[in-house]
């Protein structure tokens, strides 16, 4: 018998049901446990439901007021969440993602051909989160886009000050007019479960949720079913003829060199309380599309976290 691995043994409450997960070789075969004796500890179905719903609604309650809301858990939103979660453990951060799965275009389209390209100096961020890469002169290559997103997500979700609300769409922004300056500021978000949000025109009105927060970071990607969400709302709030009006759909043709610098440098507080970064910014600024190169998404997230920290403390 040769022990192969160090997966620890676990013991069920009933001592007679001890299962040893140490890999063993016996008679030329590998075995991890005596599966005949194997049985899980018993549970009541309602207990599982209660454990999930109690936590979910407690989180909704706790995060109804928070310090920062991040809209969109694509590569840019997750990078911002990581940077802010790590450097500002004092801030309570809600991360809203319309999709069931996080990752946005990085998981879905970027993962079609697996490899992910990031131009230097974005490899510094990869080193920070511990994602290995192959070196080329001006860029690095990660074996799988999903390796980047899953590593980033696993780190983000471990921060005690961050809660991900997935399958939840931000439907609107909460706005206030500053009585002294008359300036509009963003003061929170209106949310709903995505499946509800998608059915507003087939069902009678279903109550949305709200989250109040002084700082909102928006990374909803470029125009699409849900994409460019805050840019679209902002356009409604700044109708033609008012200062800073812009037209949506301004994103220009693909130019990797111009696009990546423009997105990182342009990541900023667009109106008080609202910071826009990632590809959503291309809709506001009319900058170029960049295609499947992800350095700017990662560093736009870092810049947005810096802005958010300063806006929060101002
Ligand atoms: O589901 C969306 C996705 O995960 C989510 N999202 C969009 N609208 C939302 C809403 N409420 C909550 N109203 C919402 N979540 O936002 C995420 C956006 O991720 P993304 O990957 O589309 O955007 P990104 O800016 O993080 O990365 C863009 C990646 C691209 S696109 C592109 C090109 O077309 O040239 N190049 C790159 C690098």
Which helices and strands occur, and which strands form pairs?
Layout: E1 24-26, E2 29-31, H1 45-62, E3 68-71, H2 75-87, E4 93-96, H3 104-107, E5 116-119, H4 123-129, E6 134-135, E7 139-142, H5 145-158, E8 162-165, E9 168-177, E10 184-193, H6 194-197, E11 209-212, E12 215-218, H7 229-237, E13 252-254, H8 256-266, E14 268-271, E15 274-276, H9 280-285, E16 288-289, H10 295-313
Parallel strand pairs: 3-4, 3-12, 4-8, 12-15, 13-16
Antiparallel strand pairs: 1-2, 5-7, 6-7, 9-10, 10-11, 14-15
Helix pairs in contact: 2-5, 2-10, 8-10
- How much helical structure, as a percent, in the residues? 25-40%
CATH superfamily, called what? FAD/NAD(P)-binding domain
Q: Work out the helix count.
A: 10
Name the bound molecules.
Answer: ligand AHZ
How does this structure look, described?
The model has no long low-confidence stretch (mean pLDDT 89). The strands form five sheets. A six-stranded mixed β-sheet has the order 8-4-3-12-15-14, sandwiched between helices. A three-stranded antiparallel β-sheet has the order 5-7-6. The protein is globular and about 80 Å long. The protein has 314 residues and is of the alpha/beta class. Strand 6 and strand 7 (139-142) form a beta hairpin. The protein is built from ten helices and 16 strands. It has one domain: FAD/NAD(P)-binding domain, CATH 3.50.50.60. Bound molecules: ligand AHZ. Ligand AHZ binds next to helix 2, helix 3 and strand 9.
Concise summary:
With 314 residues, the chain is α/β, with parallel strands linked by helices. Helix content is 33%, strand content 22%. The radius of gyration is 23 Å and the shape is globular.
């Amino acid at each position: 018998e040769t022990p192969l691995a160090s997966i620890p043994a676990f013991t069920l409450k009933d001592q007679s049901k001890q299962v040893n997960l140490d890999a063993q070789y016996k008679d030329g075969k590998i075995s991890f446990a005596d599966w005949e004796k194997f049985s899980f500890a018993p549970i009541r179905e309602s207990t599982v439901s209660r454990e999930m719903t109690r936590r979910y609604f407690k989180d909704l309650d706790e995060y109804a007021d928070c310090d920062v809301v991040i809209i969109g858990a694509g590569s840019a939103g997750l990078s911002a969440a990581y940077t802010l979660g790590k450097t500002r453990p004092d801030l309570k951060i809600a991360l809203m993602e319309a999709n069931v799965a996080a990752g946005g275009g990085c998981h879905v389209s970027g993962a079609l051909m697996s490899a992910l390209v990031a131009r230097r100096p974005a490899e510094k961020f990869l080193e920070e989160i511990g994602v290995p890469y192959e070196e080329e002169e001006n860029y690095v290559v990660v074996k799988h886009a999903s390796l980047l997103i899953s590593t980033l997500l696993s780190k983000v979700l471990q921060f005690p000050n961050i809660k991900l609300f997935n399958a939840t769409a931000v439907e609107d922004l909460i706005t206030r007019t500053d009585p002294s300056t008359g300036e509009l500021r963003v003061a929170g978000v209106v949310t709903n479960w995505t499946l509800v949000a998608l059915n507003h025109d087939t069902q009678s009105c279903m109550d949305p949720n709200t989250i109040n927060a002084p700082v909102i970071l928006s990374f909803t990607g470029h125009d699409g079913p849900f994409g460019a969400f805050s840019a679209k709302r902002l356009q409604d709030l700044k109708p033609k003829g008012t200062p800073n009006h812009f037209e949506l759909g301004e994103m220009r043709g693909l130019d990797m060199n111009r696009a990546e610098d423009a997105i990182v440098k342009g990541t900023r507080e667009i109106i008080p309380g609202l910071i826009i970064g990632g590809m959503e910014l291309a809709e506001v600024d009319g900058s170029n599309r960049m295609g499947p190169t992800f350095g700017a998404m990662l560093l736009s997230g870092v810049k947005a976290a810096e802005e958010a920290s300063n806006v929060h403390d101002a």
